[in-house]
Structures are given as structure tokens and as C-alpha cells.
Write a structure and sequence with these properties.
3 helices; mainly alpha; 72% helix; single chain
Length: 75
């Protein structure tokens, strides 16, 4: 997620925008929180893909897991 996307979602949920003079106070915390949530979710997806290694004849799931985890490095 980009910072703009995070802020748009925060506005949609009315976490910011109600009192614009206070938005700056919360924006850094919101961005940090969103990155923590995204990291946790990516890891959960990667663990699912890792478990597919036992089922798949080829190691495609390891590649999937790697790509899911790598998404966090692009943000």
C-alpha cells in the first residue's frame, strides 16, 4: 500500500478528516499501523504458500511465497 492509499482508507473510515488540524498528528501512526498489518497479512499468505510445497510436485509455492514476501520491500 502506498501512503496515499493508507490515508484514503483512513478518511473512508473517518479516522482522519473530521478535524483536519489534527490529521498530521495521526498520519504517521496510521501509516506505521497499516504497514504492520500488511506485513502480518503477507506473512500469513506466504505461510499458506509454503505449506503447498508438501502437495505440489514442483516448487512453485516457494516462488509464490517469495513473491508475496517481496511485496513488502516495494512499499
Amino acid at each position: 500500500m502506498t501512503q496515499d492509499e493508507i490515508m484514503e482508507m483512513a478518511q473512508e473510515c473517518k479516522l482522519i478528516g473530521m478535524r483536519p488540524h489534527l490529521d498530521g498528528i495521526y498520519s504517521e501512526a496510521l501509516i506505521a499501523f497499516a504497514h504492520l498489518v500488511a506485513t502480518k497479512e503477507r506473512e500469513a499468505c506466504a505461510q499458506i504458500a509454503d505449506r503447498l510445497v508438501d502437495v505440489a510436485e514442483h516448487n512453485f509455492s516457494a516462488l509464490i511465497a517469495h513473491n508475496i514476501r517481496a511485496r513488502g520491500e516495494q512499499a
